[in-house]
Design brief:
GO terms for molecular function: transmembrane transporter activity. Keywords: Cell membrane, Membrane, Transmembrane, Transmembrane helix. Pfam families: ThrE. Its main location: membrane. The protein has ten helices and three strands, in the order H-H-E-E-E-H-H-H-H-H-H-H-H. The chain has about 280 residues and is mainly α. The chain has a three-stranded antiparallel beta sheet, covered by helices on one side. Strand 2 and strand 3 form a beta hairpin. The radius of gyration is 27 Å and the shape is elongated.
Length: about 280
């Protein structure tokens, strides 16, 4: 009887050890799921996604893997993620997301990944690997960015009423402007100084091109050429966030976009005012 009792106690202890091991493994998996949700939200927010899209993606990922106690609070430059109740281990993490430019290819990649997660294609570890791959997605080559800036400037010039010569001048100005952005603005200048300098550079170049005959409407050329500096995505997302009730995040994004608008206008106005004062506005 003693041998039988010892054997039963040993089986009970082994069962308890297995249960503890399974609980620990489940806790680790839930933490990995929450880390992946935080990483996915950070990628979206950093690259220009709306607040509701970030919250929805985090909630869907957690729900699919069985984390029901997830609570996410998202601002324009930060994510607060918590989880935990009587049945789930506690988790809390805060991550600061600096306001930066948009990378819609990364946003699209995370959106596609969230759809595939809901279809049951990935384990949490595979999701982590996919998110790391998305974060390492390379940017477009500098030559492609320069060409896109030039073509965009020329097309906007045409849309605002510029003629063929004006569009050609805006195309050249757009190329030079984005070279300035890549080589000087982005790595060395603050947002305020960089946008003032960009607006001033565009205005000077358009004036010079008009003087040599490569352009007829300087106004159309300037308007078209400054468009690569205009934060259209940030402004649109700010309006959408406010419409969705995210007043703090929307206001921050709108304020950031308006600051850029004012800086660009200040650069353009500074050059035009200086030229008008020196020449009496003959070209204008």
């Amino acid at each position: 009887m003693n041998g039988l009792g010892n054997g039963l106690r040993e089986v009970e202890r082994e069962t308890q050890r297995n249960g503890q091991s399974e609980t620990h493994g489940e806790a680790q998996e839930r933490r990995l799921v929450l880390d992946c949700a935080m990483q996915a939200g950070s990628i979206l927010l950093k690259n220009g996604a709306e607040i509701f899209r970030v919250e929805e993606t985090v909630a869907r990922m957690c729900s699919h893997y069985g984390v029901e106690s997830e609570k996410a609070f998202v601002l324009s430059n930060g994510i607060f993620l918590t989880a935990g109740n009587g049945n789930e281990p506690f988790y809390a993490k805060v991550q600061h997301i600096p306001v930066s430019g948009a990378r819609l290819d990364r946003v699209a990649a995370v959106n596609q990944l969230s759809r595939e997660i809901e279809e049951g294609r990935y384990t949490p570890q595979e999701v982590k690997e996919r998110l790391d791959t998305i974060e390492r997605m390379p940017e477009k080559p500098a030559a492609v960015k320069l060409l896109a800036s030039g073509v965009g400037s020329g097309c906007f010039c045409c849309m605002f009423g510029g003629g063929p010569l004006d569009c050609l001048g805006a195309f050249l100005t757009g190329l030079i402007l984005y070279a300035y952005v890549l080589k000087l603005f982005a790595p060395h200048l603050s947002k305020i100084i960089g946008n003032i300098g960009g607006g001033a550079l565009v205005t000077v170049l358009c004036m010079l091109l008009c003087r040599i005959g490569l352009g007829e409407s300087m106004n159309c050329m300037i308007i078209g050429s400054i468009m690569p500096l205009v934060p259209g995505i940030a402004f649109t997302n700010g309006v959408r966030d406010i419409a969705d009730g995210d007043y703090i995040a929307g206001s921050v994004r709108l304020l950031d976009a308006i600051l850029v608008f004012v800086c660009i206008a200040a650069g353009v106005g500074l050059v035009i005012t200086t030229y008008h004062g020196l020449t009496g506005g003959r070209l204008l």
